[in-house]
Amino acid sequence: MYLKKPLWTEGVAEQANSNESSPPSSLEPESESASAAAAATTAVEELVNSVNNQRIYREVSLALRTGLRDACAEFSFLRLRGLRSFLQSLRSIAQSDSTILLFCHTQSIPELQVVPVLFQHSLKETEDERVTSLDHIFSVEPMKITSPSSDAEVALALRVLEGCCLLHPESSRLANKFKAIQVPVLGF
């Protein structure tokens, strides 16, 4: 996700500048035309800001959804792709205070939280999934086998976790719930 300025915002800014520099018509008094132009410019700017905020929110949530989809995959190479997508998104989110606030807002939505997915898929301890009996062959339900996390996947997951904790303080508290950070208890 690379947040760019939309092309239509440049046209609005140019139109606002041309309205300020154009001379008022001789039919209207100067004060009425100036106040009407200022009101129109303000309304257009508010509309543009509103549409821009909605666009950024959609881009942030779409980047998180696609990254989460890949980070929950059964295969390590797909999880790596999702983690790279997260890192790219976090870099572009960190460039603006408004996008950081949007990211913090999205992390309050359970379907868009990044930290639980990291601990459930990439940073989980490896379980021994050896086949002890062949009963699963004859059963109706297939056995679900997921590939273990590679070293590169764990390294990327830790970088994503670090980025989430830097941008959103609640992420570090959530990581503590998954026992990622052992807090020593000092007993006196």
Largest sheet: none
> Structural class per helix/strand content?
mainly alpha
Q: Give the DSSP E fraction (strand runs of 2 or more residues).
A: under 5%
H/E order of the elements?
A: HHHHHHHH
Q: What is the number of helical segments per DSSP (H or I, 4+ residues)? A: 8
Poorly predicted regions are none
Fraction of residues in helices? 55-70%
Rounded to the nearest angstrom, the distance between the terminal CA atoms is 50 Å
List keywords for this structure.
single chain, 8 helices, mainly alpha, 188 residues, Cell_div_Cdc14
Describe this structure in words.
- InterPro entries: Cell_div_Cdc14 (IPR012535).
- Residues 16-35 have a biased composition (Low complexity).
- The chain is mainly alpha-helical.
- It has a domain at 38-122 and 149-181.
- It is built from 8 helices and no strands.
- Helix 1 packs antiparallel against helix 2 and helix 7 (151-167) packs across helix 8.
- The longest helix is centred in the N-terminal third of the chain and has 42 residues, at 30-71.
- The radius of gyration is 25 Å and the shape is elongated.
- The chain starts with 6 loop residues before the first helix and ends in an 11-residue tail after the last helix.
Q: What's this, in brief?
A:
By secondary structure, the protein is mainly alpha-helical. Helices cover 65% and strands 0% of the residues. The protein has helices at residues 7-21, 30-71, 76-93, 97-106, 115-122, 135-138, 151-167, 169-177.
